[in-house]
């Protein structure tokens, strides 16, 4: 991501370079033509006064009549450099002082109206680098009312050759006066102003000659109206710019700016064209046309389409121990110049210099990237490894040593970047140089020597380290005089000439020991400096008697053993308290027993015998066993190698004992020693299974209780299978099981002892369960009333043989199958009727239903009424008593056409025979009463007729 950001920054840098800096780069062929130097260098300024023609109407003289020799040079205010952006104050904000792409211009003239005239001229030799002249101009010309064109404020631009002749045809001249028709003038408060315009002139015909550019402004000749202009100019080679990077799928060709129209060989009319899939070597041309108020002119430019190839490259130099690296950019491009470079030094730093000098913080190997850009934006990248050299640090440690002793130096040289190094060692004693990393060296004489190490790293950088070493002389070691002695007699060796001594053959200096061999004994003495020297002496044995202890002996534990020595000795002595020729019982173990035989010179001979006493095997017949009756078992001895059993048993072979018995095994070890052990195998007592039910047959569902009366060996796991799919593991004396369905069920009991002996028994049809009857009935009707208190009870029960009815009204029970019962209606209440059904096995079921008591509805409506003004029967008022919810009541009266003439929700309000206060005619009227009973949410409706009589 860092590299990508750097590249984006470089692209931005390139764009700035190509818009601003690149513009200034175009100017060396016409320096300061664009006033980029901030003054009028290379320009010549003139001022003068306007002269009106003698006859403005008939004399077509050149309007800008000014005397170039009246005032020579630029005049502040009339020749002005402008570099601050803004808008001209006389154009209503419409004219930008600086045109697009320019950063500085010259204002020729001012806003004073004194019949003034100003001029700026620029001369330059024409070359191939400035053959295209581009000039920009904008004018602010106050309008002179009723002025002729020759007396108006004016701007005139003329391109002349060295003789003063106007060149370039219509492209070499531009002459305009204020508010001239057809010139794109804008107006603002009596001022005409001309927006920025660009014109271009092909000077290729004048290469090698000098031309002059002339800008002239003037006020009106009558001195009342001002005129001034903004101008700038640039030049560049007259050629097409090809932007075609190697590897791109498109190429862009751009013509010089400033022309009025463009016509390419492929028919395009834009200043720039894009060529897809370009073919290298193809030729493209463009006809460029410039329009002025004097006419038009054109030029044709050709360009071959060749890709731009950027080849980045660089070299660098760096010395040992210096962290700064000088980079030299050797990048090339086949056309145009490389205008930008981006360096990434591999240590998170960058540069845009062409040949940077970079200082690294530490030596090492860095991937240095160079990205080179040319003017058209083509780029390429090179990455090289740059080694920043370090100086190694040579160093070593070496201890002082002794003469003739090899000493190894320890090389501690380092390199900051862990480069491989080579070494040169001079040990200071005239011997050849050594080149290994950690050499070993021996000095032949004592003294002080200087060791020099030169370390060279892979970059060829070197460092030297010098250290001294002291070489000590060897001590004068003496072993002593030679000795002669009997074999096996102690002796003491004492060296001298040093401070510590080491003898071969296991002897310790100054400590008595028994030599086992004769011959040379060598001592090594070490002095205070750690230097060692050697000396020796001879030890000679006198002849010793020949002694034999006999062959090695192996016996079993508790066996007697006798040892007797033989040979040329006169007496024999055994160690371990053994008496020659006497038997004894040794303990278990292995013994090396030494026999000494002495001769007349008291020299003795030695011999040894090995006594091995093997232990008896720790035979184990195994633990006593208890097994199930009829089961098999295996007896296997342990602690020995082979086993023999009595009673016909074979070791580790299965057998089935018929009764309890004791078995003996004899075990023999690998060395032939024997021992015995015994084991008892017993037969376990069986279980006698016995169960009993707690009660007889029952109705479903039935929870059966069963007693376990089994005897014998106690069970540790008793499994019950109840015959209905239910099982239970329990060692309790009593178990229960819920039988939910009718039927007779087998019960199986399986008991297991702690030993694993299993005993099982099944009891067929041990538990029987009978079905329950189903009690059911209906009441007809299910709702009774005071008026109709009787109901038929219909028995729908199944599986029963006896029935008991309880009517819930305090009357006697009934055993009828389908009783009809008249309920006691005082007081009014609902009745819970219960039916109990009983099967032939005494199984019972019951059901209870509620018989509803509906309160009586008494509603009376008269069939006529006489609203004739007397006190008898003046209104139609139905009589409503108990059983009606008076909050849910409605009375409505209809005439013969079905129209409603009266409606009320009040049970105490009647109809007086009127409709909206007008008496209705005699005749028959229909009525409808809608109400809800007080005992339920049921709505009822009652219809009838009434006669209205008067």
TrEMBL record:
Checking SMART domains in the record gives: PKD
Could you tell me the membrane topology recorded for this protein?
A: Multi-pass membrane protein
Q: State the compartments where it is located.
A: Membrane
Please list the GO terms describing molecular function. monoatomic cation channel activity
Domain (PKD) ranges: 323-388, 421-471, 687-756, 803-823
Entry GO terms, CC: plasma membrane
Give a GO biological-process term: calcium ion transport
Keywords in alphabetical order, please: Membrane, Repeat, Signal, Transmembrane, Transmembrane helix
Q: Which Pfam families match?
A: CHU_C (PF13585), PKD (PF00801), PKD_4 (PF18911)
Q: Where is the signal peptide?
A: 1-24
InterPro entries recorded: Ig-like_fold, PKD/Chitinase_dom, PKD_dom, PKD_dom_sf, T9SS_type_B
Name the record gives this protein? PKD domain-containing protein
Source organism: Fluviicola chungangensis
Q: What is the lineage of its organism?
A: Bacteria, Pseudomonadati, Bacteroidota, Flavobacteriia, Flavobacteriales
């Amino acid at each position: 991501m860092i590299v990508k950001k750097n590249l984006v920054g470089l692209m931005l840098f390139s764009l700035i370079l190509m818009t601003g800096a690149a513009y200034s780069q175009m100017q060396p062929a016409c320096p300061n033509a664009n006033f980029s130097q901030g003054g009028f260098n290379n320009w010549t300024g003139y001022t003068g006064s306007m002269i009106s023609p003698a006859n403005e109407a008939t004399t077509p003289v050149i309007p800008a009549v000014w005397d170039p020799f009246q005032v020579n040079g630029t005049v502040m205010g009339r020749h002005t450099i402008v570099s601050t952006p803004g808008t001209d104050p006389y154009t209503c904000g419409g004219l930008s002082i600086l045109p697009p792409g320019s950063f500085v211009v010259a204002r020729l003239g001012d806003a004073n109206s004194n019949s003034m005239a100003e001029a700026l001229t620029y001369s330059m030799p024409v070359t191939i680098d400035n053959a295209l002249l581009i000039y920009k101009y904008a004018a602010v010309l106050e309008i002179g009312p009723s002025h002729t064109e020759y007396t108006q404020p004016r701007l005139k631009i003329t391109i002349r050759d060295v003789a003063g002749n106007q060149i370039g045809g219509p492209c070499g001249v531009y002459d305009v006066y204020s508010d001239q028709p057809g010139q794109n003038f804008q107006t603002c408060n009596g001022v005409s102003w001309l927006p920025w315009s660009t014109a271009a002139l092909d000077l290729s015909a004048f290469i090698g000659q000098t031309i002059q550019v002339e800008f002239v402004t003037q006020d009106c000749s009558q001195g009342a109206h001002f005129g001034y202009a903004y101008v700038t100019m640039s030049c560049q080679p007259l050629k097409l710019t090809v932007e075609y990077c190697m590897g791109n799928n498109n190429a862009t060709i751009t013509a010089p700016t400033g022309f009025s129209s463009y016509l390419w060989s492929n028919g395009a009319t834009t200043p720039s064209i894009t060529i897809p899939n370009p073919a290298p070597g193809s030729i493209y041309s463009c006809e460029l046309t410039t329009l002025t108020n004097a006419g038009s002119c054109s030029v044709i430019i050709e360009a071959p389409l060749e890709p731009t190839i950027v080849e980045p490259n660089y070299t660098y130099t760096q010395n040992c121990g210096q962290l700064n690296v000088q980079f030299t950019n050797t990048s090339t491009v086949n056309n145009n110049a490389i205008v930008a470079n981006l360096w990434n030094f591999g240590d998170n730093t960058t540069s845009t210099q062409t040949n940077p000098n970079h200082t690294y913080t530490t030596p090492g190997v860095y991937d240095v990237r160079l990205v080179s850009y040319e003017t058209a934006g083509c780029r390429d990248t090179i990455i090289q490894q740059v080694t920043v050299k370090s100086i190694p640090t040579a160093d070593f440690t070496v201890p002082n040593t002794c003469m003739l002793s090899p000493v190894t130096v320890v090389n501690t040289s380092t390199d900051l970047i862990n480069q491989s190094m080579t070494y040169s060692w001079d040990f200071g004693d005239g011997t050849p140089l050594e080149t290994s990393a950690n050499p070993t060296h021996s000095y032949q004489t004592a003294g002080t020597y200087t060791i020099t190490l030169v370390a060279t790293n892979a970059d060829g950088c070197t460092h030297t380290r010098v250290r001294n070493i002291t070489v000590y002389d060897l001590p004068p070691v003496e072993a002593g005089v030679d000795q002669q002695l009997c074999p096996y007699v102690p002796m003491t060796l004492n060296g001298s000439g040093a401070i510590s001594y080491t003898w071969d053959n296991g002897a310790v200096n100054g400590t008595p020991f028994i030599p086992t061999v004769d011959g040379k004994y060598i001592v090594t003495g070490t002095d205070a400096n750690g230097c060692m020297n050697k000396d020796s002496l001879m030890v000679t044995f006198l002849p010793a008697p020949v002694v034999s202890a006999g062959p090695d002996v192996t016996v079993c534990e508790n066996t007697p053993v006798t040892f007797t020595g033989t040979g040329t000795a006169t007496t024999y002595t055994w160690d371990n308290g053994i008496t020659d020729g006497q038997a004894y019982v040794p303990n278990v173990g292995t013994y090396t027993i030494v026999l000494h035989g002495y001769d007349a010179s008291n020299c003795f001979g030695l011999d040894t015998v090995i006594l091995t006493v093997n232990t008896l095997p720790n035979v184990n017949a195994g633990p006593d066993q208890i097994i199930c009756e009829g089961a098999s078992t295996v007896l296997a001895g342990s602690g020995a190698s082979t086993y023999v059993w009595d009673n016909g048993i074979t070791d580790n072979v299965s057998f089935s004992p018929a009764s309890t018995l004791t078995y003996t095994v004899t075990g023999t070890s690998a060395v032939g020693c024997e021992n015995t052990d015994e084991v008892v195998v017993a037969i376990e007592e069986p279980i006698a299974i016995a169960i009993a039910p707690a009660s007889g047959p029952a109705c479903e569902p039935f929870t059966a209780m069963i007693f376990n009366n089994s005897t014998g060996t106690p069970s540790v796991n008793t499994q019950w299978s109840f015959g209905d799919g239910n099982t239970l593991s329990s060692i309790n004396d009593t178990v229960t099981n819920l039988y939910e369905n009718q039927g007779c069920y087998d019960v199986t009991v399986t008991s297991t002892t702690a030993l694993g002996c299993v005993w099982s028994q099944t009891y067929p049809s041990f538990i029987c369960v009978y079905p329950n009857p189903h009690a059911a009935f209906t009441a007809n009707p299910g709702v009774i009333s005071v008026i109709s208190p009787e109901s038929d009870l219909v028995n729908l029960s199944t599986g029963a043989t006896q029935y008991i009815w309880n009517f819930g009204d305090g009357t006697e029970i009934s055993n009828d199958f389908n009783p009809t019962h008249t309920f006691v209606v005082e007081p009014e209440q609902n009745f819970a009727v219960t039916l109990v059904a009983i099967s032939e096995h005494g199984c019972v079921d019951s059901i209870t239903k509620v018989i509803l008591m509906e309160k009586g509805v008494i509603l009376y409506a008269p069939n006529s009424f006489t609203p004739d003004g007397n006190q008898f029967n003046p209104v139609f008022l139905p009589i409503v008593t108990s059983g009606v919810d008076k909050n849910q009541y409605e009375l409505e009266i209809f005439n013969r056409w079905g129209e409603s003439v009266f409606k009320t929700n009040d049970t105490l309000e009647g109809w007086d025979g009127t409709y909206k206060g007008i008496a209705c005619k005699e005749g028959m009227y229909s009525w409808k009463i809608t109400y809800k009973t007080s005992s339920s949410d049921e709505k009822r409706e009652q219809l009838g007729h009434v006669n209205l009589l008067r």
